[in-house]
Each structure stands twice: as structure tokens, then as C-alpha cells.
Amino acid sequence: MVLIDQEGSYIHGSIKGNLVHLFRDVIVEGEIYSIANFEIVDNRTRFRVVGDNKHMIQINAESTVRPAPGQLPNIAMHRFDLLDFDKVPMRKGLDYILTDVVGQVCSEGEVTNKNVYDRTVKSLMLELQDLRGAKMRITLWGKTVDEYTTQKATILGSVIVGVFTSNLVKEYMKTTTLSSTTATKVFLDVGIDEVAALKTKLTSAELNDYWSRSLL
């Protein structure tokens, strides 16, 4: 999980595996908590959700997690480390850091079941487009397929813009692609400037195309 404070700083937080059951029903995404008696440990050497931080928070058996008391501070719901498409290839083969991107879904494949390490896993390939028109393919796996399809069903209109977090950068058929991980989260139509800019550009382009065709 990613924790954000009222200054906008953020850090990766984790719960020791054998203690997850103690906090599963206590911590709810989007709520504000007061957390005490946690450990500060070195950040992971692989698959970092927050790549710039040298340390992370680890919740242990002595930790307490309670709803924040009194007047709640104004804390942002999300913070992303969005990487421009032209910089994504520089992370190819690097597994110490995971990559966040934002883009319009301009092409979508079909949900298929694939055999991965003797398990059947859902898979969905999308093609994303950024503000400059550059394109990047991303493959969603497992629960992220369900996150995407569930959120997509609630969106009105044909323009789908989303943030896809914590992806690995890979190469497929000599092309740089993204692949979701177990840490990946999907945020369609989330209220950030980058999404608004893409939607505005695409809406304007649709209107221009409509009027161009109307005048023919």
C-alpha cells in the first residue's frame, strides 16, 4: 500500500505476511488513519512501488491503526509517479522500480485465459496513447483485468483515460511494452490534471472531426 501525508509526501507501507489478517478489516483505501509504533525498514531492492524512497514503513504486531481524530487534514487521495512514454524504454529490464503511466485506451483486445506457472490467469492487452500521440502497449493480468472491466462499465461515453500503476517494463517482439504486477492498480477517469488534459484534447478532437464531416 502507499501512504500519503498532508504535505503530499508518500511512502510504501507493508504489513508482515503473518499479520495481514489483523489489519485486513481495519485499513480501508481512501480513509485517513493515525498509525503508531511502526518500523522503518529499508525499501525493497526489487519491485519498488515508491522508487525514490530509501525506506518504507512496516506495520508489526505492536502497531496501532486508528481513524484520524478530530478535524481531518486535507490529504490527496492519490499520488502517482507518471512516466512519459518516451522514457519508458529506459526502464526495460530494470526490476528494482515499478512504473506508472497515464493514457487514453485507443485499442483493446479480448480477455483471454493463459497458463502461467501451471495456473490459469486472465489476460487483456490494451494500447494506450499519450498527449503527444505516442502509443504504448500494456498487458493486464489477473485482478487488474477485473479492475479495468468493472471501472470501464461505469464510464459514460467512448473516451477512456486511465492511470495504470506499478508495472514492469518488458520487451515483446522487439517492442517496449508494459506488464501489470500484483501491485498494479487501475484508476479510470481519476481526477488529476493529466487525465483532464487528455480528455479535453480528445473531446476537442472529436468535436473538430464532427464539424469537419458536417461541412463536407
TrEMBL record:
<protein>
    <recommendedName>
        <fullName>Replication protein A 70 kDa DNA-binding subunit B/D first OB fold domain-containing protein</fullName>
    </recommendedName>
</protein>
<dbReference type="Pfam" id="PF02721">
    <property type="entry name" value="DUF223"/>
</dbReference>
<feature type="domain" description="Replication protein A 70 kDa DNA-binding subunit B/D first OB fold">
    <location>
        <begin position="1"/>
        <end position="67"/>
    </location>
</feature>
<dbReference type="InterPro" id="IPR012340">
    <property type="entry name" value="NA-bd_OB-fold"/>
</dbReference>
<dbReference type="InterPro" id="IPR003871">
    <property type="entry name" value="RFA1B/D_OB_1st"/>
</dbReference>
